[in-house]
Amino acid sequence: MLSRRNGIRILGDLTLADVPPDCIQRCVRDDDVKRKFLIWPGDWDQRTRPMAEHYRYGPMQDLWQHRDQIENSESYHDLVQRIERKQPLARVNKSILVDTPDKAKEHLLNS
C-alpha cells in the first residue's frame, strides 16, 4: 500500500485525473474512505452511493443554482440566521470569520 502523501510526492501529476464533473454519478461511502492511503484494498468500490446523497452535494447545488444572486441561496440565508443568533461561522485555523451579511456573501462566492 502507498500512503497518499508519498504517492503524490513520487507520482506528482500522475495522481490527477481530468474528469468532466457531469460524468461523476456515484461516490465512495464516508466510512470506506481511508484518506491516509492513495490506493486502499477491499471492495469499497462495490459499495458506492449516488452522488446526490453526499452531504456536500445539496449545498454545492444550491450555490451553483444561485451563483448570480447568492443572496437567494439557502446557504446565504443559513449564514445570515447564524449571524442573527450571534453564532457566526468561525474557522480559526483558516482565519475565517463570517459575522456580517456582506462577509456571508463574500464567503459563499469565494468557497
What does this structure look like?
The chain has 111 residues and is α+β, with helices and mostly antiparallel strands. It folds into two domains: 50 residues, no CATH class; 54 residues, no CATH class. The chain is 34% helix and 11% strand. It has four helices and four strands. The strands form two sheets. The protein has a two-stranded antiparallel ribbon. A two-stranded antiparallel sheet has the order 3-4. The protein is elongated, with a radius of gyration of 18 Å. The mean pLDDT is 89.
Fill in the keyword field for this structure:
single chain; 111 residues; alpha+beta; 2 domains; two-stranded antiparallel sheet; 4 helices; 11% strand; elongated
Report the major sheet. Answer: 2 strands, antiparallel
Number of helices: 4
Estimate percent helicity.
25-40%
Task: Report the structural category.
Answer: alpha+beta
Number of strands: 4
The whole-number mean of residue pLDDT values reads 89
Instruction: Please state roughly what percent of the residues sit in beta strands, choosing from under 5%, 5-15%, 15-25%, 25-35%, 35-45% or over 45%.
Output: 5-15%
What's the gyration radius in Å? 18 Å
Order of helices and strands: HEEHHEEH
Poorly predicted regions are none
Strand order of the largest sheet: 1-2
Quaternary structure of the protein: single chain
Map the helices and strands.
Layout: H1 4-11, E1 26-28, E2 48-50, H2 57-65, H3 74-84, E3 89-91, E4 96-98, H4 101-110
Antiparallel strand pairs: 1-2, 3-4
